[in-house]
Amino acid sequence: MSIHRIVVLEDPAAVSAADWDTVAGNSLMSSYRWQSFWAAAQAPSLPRSRTAIVAVYEGNQLVGHCGAYRYPYPLPFKQAWQRRTARSLMWPINPVNFHKPPQVHPAADPDQVIPLLLQGIDQLRLKWLAPAARLVMLDQRRDARLLGHLQKKGYMIAPGITDTQLDIVWPNFQDYLGQALQGRHRNYLARCYRKAIEAGAALKVIERPSAFQDQIITLLRNVAARNRSETLYDESFLMAAEQYLLRDDIVVIGAWLKGQLVACTINFRDGESLIQKSLGMDYALAQSLNLYRLIMAEGIKYAIEAGLSSIRCGFSQYDIKGRLGFDQVATLSAIKAAPPILSRLFTYRSGAMQVDNTTANSSPDTLVDSSGNSQPGKAGTSL
């Protein structure tokens, strides 16, 4: 019988990067460099955000792991000082969260390793005195084995965030426009591009994002403040990305208006997918030109040209994303709380995380993006 041991630690340096990435495969958000980046990139808070690693060894071989973090989410108060105060006071009720589902070495037996990883998660939850552990964005089919183990370990499985996804099947951007978009949406997007270009706008991938750190964090904070939230990132997170991530891991797309950066998206390449993660905007300059829609389209263009297989675009603004060809993807959340009756409290989904079919199917295109009347992205963390 194999002898396994569970390790719970907060310093990534205690684990071999090569061993960790052998288990992670080609997933960025399960990788060793992501663990190091996220530890340095989280926004400062009181109490301080925390990160940790749960690992399972068979002898000296790493056979499974998962990366965890605990971030004090703010409540949607109007004033920043109120949000900061609330998230400090409510720190004790914040759960343990995970970047990706637990990973198992390709040569190991998942049915042996997964229960041990879940046992390690229990140990971490107790160590941090957290009331719950929560895994999100789970897929019914892809994660079927994991979901079975989660239920056996006392996790409640609940409907999760409605994600959006575009599968890339076109050789170039023009074919995407011609085949993925309805004629009226394609013509509208063309008018948006034309209007923006006539106004002096330019859209492109930023080659060295850290050179624009101050402007980018200001744009992200604009979106967070508009949505009565706070950014997830430290003001120097792009320097951390430059230090820990590979050059192609992070893709920042910017929109300039007469030489001024007025909108951006923060994207990560996770294997063969582009994850469009965060939005930043100068509303006074960017909104009337529909730059929200255009920088999303530029992300699609980048993914096609890079040969990626899909784009994941998060929650909110389902109507705009649907017009750009994105499909809605149902996900599941798994929560284990102590006592178990509290699990349902951690299944909360805001309105932006669920599809409003009435809005999604009825609002017409106009020359002012519909984000002018609704929230363009919750907490500056999703498009």
Helices and strands, with pairings:
Blueprint: E1 4-9, H1 17-24, H2 32-41, E2 50-58, E3 61-70, H3 80-89, E4 96-98, E5 103-104, H4 110-127, E6 132-138, H5 144-152, E7 156-159, E8 163-167, H6 173-180, H7 183-198, E9 201-205, H8 213-226, H9 237-244, E10 250-257, E11 260-270, E12 273-281, H10 283-286, H11 291-305, E13 310-312, H12 318-323, E14 327-329, E15 332-337, H13 357-362
Helix pairs in contact: 2-9, 4-5
Q: What is this structure, in a nutshell?
A:
The protein is α+β, with helices and mostly antiparallel strands and 383 residues long. It has helices spanning 17-24, 32-41, 80-89, 110-127, 144-152, 173-180, 183-198, 213-226, 237-244, 283-286, 291-305, 318-323, 357-362, and strands at residues 4-9, 50-58, 61-70, 96-98, 103-104, 132-138, 156-159, 163-167, 201-205, 250-257, 260-270, 273-281, 310-312, 327-329, 332-337. It contains 13 helices and 15 strands.
